[in-house]
Amino acid sequence: MMSTYMLFYWFVTFISLYLLIFWLLTYFDKESAKPLAVNNLKKFPLVSIAIPAYNEEKRIKKTILSVLNLDYPSDKIELFVMDDGSSDGTKKVVEKLIKEHKDRNITLVSKPNKGKGAVLNVALKMSNGEFFVVFDADSTVGKNALMVMLPVFSADKETACVLPAIKVRDPHNSLLKYQWIEYLVTFFYKYIMDFVDCIPVSPGPFSVYKKKDIEEIGGFDEDNLTEDLELSLNLQKHHKRIRQNNKVVVETSAPETWKSFYKQRNRWYKGGFYNTLKYRSLIFNKQYGDFGLLQFPAFFAMGWLVLALMLIGIAKLISTTYDFFINLYDINFDILHFIDFSEFWWFSIEYSNILLMIFATSTLMVLLFSAINHHGEKLFKEKWILLPLYLVVYGLFLVFVWLGILIDMIFGKKQKW
Amino acid sequence: MVVKRTVTKKNYILAFVITGLIFVVAFLFGMVADRMFVEHVDKFNDETRYDLFRLELRSALLEDRICEYEFDSFVKDEFGYVSAEIMQLETKLGKNHQKVKDLKKYYTLLEIYDWLHYKNIKEKCGSDYDLILYFYSNKEDSQGNTLCDDCERQGFILGYIKSENPSSVRVYSFDYDLESEEVGILKSLYGIDSFPSMVINDDVIRGFAELEDIEYFL
């Protein structure tokens, strides 16, 4: 039992460390970085922006205003607000905004609730632009977005999608601060993945697509937990390029409570799992280069591997605790006996493991600080303490999420968006 | 137009080499630590042999007047801990590791020697300390389940008794399965055919015994 578990433990540790080092190597291998075209736009193509909204009366005004403020010719932007059967005042807020901005091309489409993928397909059909942008209603985009992102498409003919960096807006509690760090790391990661065409997901906030390309591959999946992931995997399947441009920043509202955070991640990772199954033909498929051989299998397996490791670890912890209490019972709860440990206590330490953990943690730290540095952010005084906490609390929580997904699957819980 | 996919072989290999190196360094480090513990136990055994030798000489010199002398805290009083150390070594290096086997056999002999000496003094001088022989097994079946579920628990209780009465109780632990003729003789002397078993002074207890049961015999 012990040795099988340890073997599995070494295996997962090895894979994790391997992936970490692989990406750091790719990062430091500057030659592999693809240049992001920074030339100025010579002409301004029409851009269609779709904002799917479901009960967003509180946040949608800011979202729309950030689109209207984009540094781009206003007659070259058409905006579709897709009200997906909201029961709150979303419609009213948007109608008021349309009245206030009569000079702008804004269309409000109200449909009975059909799901995000479905309303996006409606918008795709209605749109006339060369580019199609999905823009979640809970986010705001930086002014420079289109001016910086559109030239990237002209760098080559394969690029079908360009993504901005996403940051957590106003991280005022510790959960938001954890996510703030997580987003920095994620988008640093995606920046590196860009070097080797390995980006697996184009998230909802301000992903710019070449309209022709997404029409070609059949648009958005209408019955999917994570239609954004589905679309990007479909793009990868068709060997289309997805680029990451962190010079553009989109600010998004992240879940503020652990409960809503759990719900979000449960949906994301579950959607991730099902979509990986859907595109399983790409796993270890040499045709897909680094994406098929490394990134996609890791994307598929790591969550489950870590979950298995943690579950066995927790089971071991329980059995150790049980033994401890048996021992305590056997000596009539003379707890002082345990405090008086012998001079040989250091003998029982797993030294190779400790050293390995030191290596792994320092590699992680290199990654964290590279990420923070990459985004030009600083860790404030009070956020320093969050780094170790980030690794522990956050890691445990994500395992909890995976456990929830496993349980949902076992009991066949149906889930909608 | 489609993306021309590539496999960045260089980084696959380099990452593998670096990760491998980190693992090798970590395991070497662990091996050095284990080596240090082996040496520690080795040294302890040697020192104990020396102490026992002196003890024997003194007994021979004094002959009948042996009871007039106090002998306590002469021989290293770390027997319990060292047996725990050897157990740890077994889990780290493996039971079949030759060095561990040797250490264990040697240590077993020292234990028997020490026990004989104290038994002798106890009989001659009527001293009131208690000598406990403990036979355990840490053998596993092919599935890796331990055959003696209670042995570790029993060992813990005995360790507790020893630490509570450091000057009046001596505990000697013997691996029931050790390929040692001396342990075999001990087993047949007291009719030990199962584990866990204990010999407290001259009383034999077969099977798991709670703290109170053992204290009854002390």
Describe this structure in words.
The complex is a heterodimer of chains A (417) and B (218). Chain A has two domains: 4-28 and 291-411, no CATH class; 32-256, Spore Coat Polysaccharide Biosynthesis Protein SpsA, Chain A, CATH 3.90.550.10. In chain A, helix 1 (2-28) packs antiparallel against helix 10 (289-330), helix 6 crosses helix 13 and helix 10 packs across helix 13 (386-410). The model of chain A has no long low-confidence stretch (mean pLDDT 89). Chain A has 13 helices and eight strands. Chain A is of the alpha/beta class and 417 residues long. Chain A has helices at residues 2-28, 60-68, 90-100, 116-126, 145-153, 174-195, 211-216, 227-237, 258-278, 289-330, 336-339, 351-374, 386-410, and strands at residues 47-53, 77-84, 106-111, 131-135, 139-141, 159-168, 205-210, 241-252. Chain A is globular and about 85 Å long. Helices cover 53% and strands 14% of the residues of chain A. By secondary structure, chain B is α+β, with helices and mostly antiparallel strands. Chain B contains six helices and four strands, in the order H-H-H-E-H-E-H-E-E-H. Chain B has helices at 9-62, 79-93, 98-125, 151-164, 181-190, 211-217; strands at residues 130-136, 169-175, 197-200, 203-206. In chain B, strand 3 and strand 4 form a beta hairpin. The radius of gyration of chain B is 24 Å and the shape is elongated. The mean pLDDT of chain B is 86. Classes of the chains: A alpha/beta (417), B alpha+beta (218). Chains A and B meet through helix 1, helix 10 and helix 12 of A and helix 1, helix 2 and helix 4 of B.
